Model the fold of this input.
Amino acid sequence: MTRTHLALAAAVVALAGCRSAAAPRVAAASAAPPAWEQENPLKPLPAPPLGIEVNWAALRVTPEKARLGRWLFYDPRLSADGTISCATCHQPEHAFSEVEPHSTGIGGKTGTRKSPSFVNGALAISPAYFWDGRAATLQEQAKGPMVNPVEMGATHEQVVANVSRAGAYRPYFREAFGDERITLDRVVDAIAAYEATRLSGNSAWDRYDAGDEHALTPAADRGRELFFGRGRCNQCHLGQNFTDGKFHDIGVGWKDPGPGKPPASGYADRGRYDVTHDPKDLGAFKTPTLRDCSKHAPYMHDGSLATLREVMFHYARGGTDNPHLDEAIAPFPLSEADAEDLVAFMKALDGEGYQDVAPSHLPR
Done:
C-alpha cells in the first residue's frame, strides 16, 4: 500500500471517529423538550389590553420569571401534603376568584373568607393585599397561604424543600434569577410575576371609554349612568381597575350585639382592625375590583351575598347601619329595572387577557 493510500485510510478512520463522537451531541440537541416545557414555552410578556396601562420594567417582571411562576402557581407540592396549590382557591375559570363563600384548604379545612381575585392586582393604586390589607406586595401575599394552617398548611422551609426536590425546576430558576438557588423569596417573586401578567381589559366598557359609542348595550349604558350618577359607586370603585384599594365598612357581617355589649362585638370578622388595631378600621375591608366581577359570585369578604342583584340592593339600602359605617355609604332609590341595568354594566366590565388553563405537566 502506498503512502497516499495509507494517508487516505487514516483520514477515513479519523472522519468516522469524529462522526461517531458527534452523533450523541446531535441527538441531544434535537431531543424534544420535556412535556412541561412544551406546554409552557418561554414567550414575551403580554401587551396590555385596551384600558390597561402597565410598565413591566417598573414591576420587575420578566418572561423567565412569569413562566417559572406559572408552574409554581399551579403546583400543589407547595402545600404540606401536596394537595393544595394557589389555583385551588384562585381559579382561572372564575377570573382567579372562586365559587365558594369560604376557601377550603388542606385536609378539607375551611376558612372564614372568600378568596378575592388578583387580576390586575399588580396595578393597584394603593398596594395592599388580602381583604384586610396585611400584605404590602404580591410577593408578601404569596407567602401567607403557604403557612396558613387552614390553607396550604406548610412551613416556608417545607415549601423550599419541596420545590428543591423537583430537580427539573433548577434550570428555570437559573434562567429567571441567574443561578439555580431555590429560595423562598425567589419562589414568591416568580409567583407574583405570573400573577402580574393576569391582566383584564378590552371590555365593552373599555371600548366605550375609548370612543366606541355602540360598545355598551342599552341596559349597560343606563347602568353606567346610575353607576357614575345616582349610585355614586365610583366614589370607591374608580381608576383602571375600578377600586380605590382602600378599606371601608359597608356593614357586611355586623349584627347589633344588644344592650350593654360593646359595638365591636357585633362584628363576625373585624377586618382591617386586626391589622392596624385602629378603631376606625373596625369592620373595614378592601374595595374589590369590579373587573370580571360577574365571575366572582358569591360576593363580599364572607361570600354572604349570592348575586350581583343582592349587592346592588345592599348598597341601595345604605349598607347595614353600624357605629363604624363608612360615611360614603348612603341609601339611594333603586328599582328592579335599575338593578338589572347596574348588573348589565357590571357584565360590561368582563374583559380579556387574564384567561389561562392549568398546565397538565409540571417540572419533576
Notes: Residues 92 and 355 are 6 Å apart (CA to CA). Residues 3-30 form the longest helix (28 residues). The chain has 14 helices and two strands. The radius of gyration is 27 Å.
